[in-house]
Predict the structure.
Amino acid sequence: MATFTQIRKSTAKAIQHGHDGRGVMAFHYAAVQDVQESPAIVVAPADRIAAEFGKAMQRGLDEWYLNIIVMVAANVTLEMAQEELDEFVSGMGDKSIRSILEDDHTVGLPDTFLTVTGVRDYGGMYKVGDVRYVGAIITVTARTSGK
C-alpha cells in the first residue's frame, strides 16, 4: 500500500524526469502560489473526491484521485504558451504526461497503478507574482492496495 504522499511525490518525480529519466522536463511545486519557473506542475488532490477506500472486498483496494496542474508562462504570446502546454496534455509525444505515466503505471511504488483519465480546464489562467501562466488540469486515478 502506498500513502497519498508517496503517490503524489512519485507521480511528480516521474513527470519531472520524463521518458528518459535524465533531465528536468517540468518543475514541481507543492502549490500553485509557489510556482517560480516554467513549465511547472502541481500534483494535488482532486477537487471534489480525493479518495475512496475499500473498493474491493475486505478493503483490498483504495482509489486516490489526483489533479496534475500544468502551468506554462505566457511571457511572449498566449499562442506560444498554448503550443508548449499542448505538448504536456497531448496523448503522445516526448512531453506527454499521459505517455510518461503509461510507460510506468506504478511510478516506482509497489501495489500501485495509475491511469490518466482526462484533461479539463484547458486554457485556465493563473497569475503568480507578476507572471501570467496558462494551464490545464490532467486528471489521474491511482489505485493501491488497501491493506
